[in-house]
């Protein structure tokens, strides 16, 4: 094994241990939680190592970086998640490789994704990104629809050709009533998921928790955690 692959293997083992412990503490089965490794800013060679180490889901947040990486790794059995703020002019590219877009947060993006998916002959899974710090009718600083906008947006995705409504995603807010209260934030997301599933029972994915707060997400009931730093190391610069 190369040094880098051994490093990734050791980090993955630690993250796996944390997820398993969090599941045990919450009385959940380990299979109820899927690890998505966020590979943003790291090279395709790392994605390849992760695949060899058994990772099945990876996530990226910038199309410029993700598109060439996904192309280089197209022979690998990986699910690709897009988790970044998405401009409509990038949608056609993203639909070319993303199996799931976790950052759906406005009607214009739904229509653009739908048109691109139909054109590409693909079905794209969609999570609505929820901004728990958004005011009424508002949006989050880092994207996301406010809780009061979920119902309308869910209906639009569910009715859009080429799209599949898979569930909800959030990033723990840095401001507002949930600042510093990750578990309360993730529990709120679970309540919003339960409410949405009355009309959309199959949309049962709940994506929450990152390197610093995956335990709180698992405790709250998340089905997917998105872990970058704890597997790949601290990112340099933005990302
Ligand atoms: C970068 C990122 C993550 C992973 O964050 P880490 O703290 O590195 O684990 C998760 N979700 C989103 C949306 C991200 O942009």
Automatic annotation (TrEMBL):
Q: Which residues form the Alanine racemase N-terminal domain?
A: 11-235
Q: Which InterPro entries does the entry mention?
A: Ala_racemase_N, PLP-binding_barrel, PyrdxlP_homeostasis
Enumerate the cofactors the protein uses.
pyridoxal 5'-phosphate
Q: List N6-(pyridoxal phosphate)lysine occurrences by residue.
A: 40
Q: Which residues form a coiled coil?
A: none
Record carries keyword Transcription: no
The protein's GO terms of the molecular function aspect are:
pyridoxal phosphate binding
Keywords (A to Z) from UniProt: Pyridoxal phosphate
Q: Name one Pfam family in it.
A: Ala_racemase_N
Family in the record = Belongs to the pyridoxal phosphate-binding protein YggS/PROSC family.
Q: State the function annotated in the UniProt record.
A: Pyridoxal 5'-phosphate (PLP)-binding protein, which is involved in PLP homeostasis.
Instruction: Please identify the protein, giving its name as recorded.
Output: Pyridoxal phosphate homeostasis protein
